[in-house]
Amino acid sequence: MTGVLTFLVGFIGLPAAGVNSPAASVETATATVTATVTTPASAPPEATDAPSSTSGSPAVRWTGPLLVSGDFNLDSVPPQGAMPTDGDIELSQINDGQEAVLRSARASLAVVPQGENPDAARCTVLAQTQGQRLADLPVAVGGKLCLITSEGRPSLVTVTAVHPEAQNASLDVHIWQKTD
Q: Which has the closest alpha carbon to 133: 77, 173, 87, 174?
């Protein structure tokens, strides 16, 4: 009888005394899963000294470094020294070996807000709305100016170095075609 009872109890899934039924043997397993989600961080903007550009920007007329002392005509390709007051930009002096003092008799110069890298349209707006003519503008290394040349070309000038002993300054100049 015990055999029949054990059989019946094991058959319906109840454990019988002293019998290890597969249905009666339940093990609990616990697993801990740690998931790390990696999302690509936004890449920092590329460090570049090239002005930003939009599809509607005029073509670049000339871009490159210049070593200036005195007046410079930015409308010639490449830009060249000019007679006093005939240039688009003039290095009038060096302040404490730290700043180039720039001015123009023919163009309005506008200081570019720090961290901004204007395109031709933005330089035009800055020169037209904030530009100063015949004002001495001290510009530290890394500082930028916008102007419109005497022939109407928007230009961006960046002071890259000041050379007090030689009384000249290194500039990076970007000149666009006229925007008529």
A: 87
Q: Which residues pair with 139 in a beta bridge?
A: 100
Task: Quickly tell me which residue has 């005509």 as its tokens.
Answer: 73
Helices marked H in the chain: 2-11, 120-130
pTM as predicted:
0.69
Distance of alpha carbon 30 from alpha carbon 82, whole angstroms: 84
Residue with token string 């109890």: 9
12-58, pLDDT tens digit by residue? 554 544 545 445 444 444 433 333 333 334 333 333 445 555 556 78
The first and second tokens of residue 178, run together, are 């006229």
Parallel, antiparallel, or unpaired: how do β-strands 70-73 and 80-81 relate? antiparallel
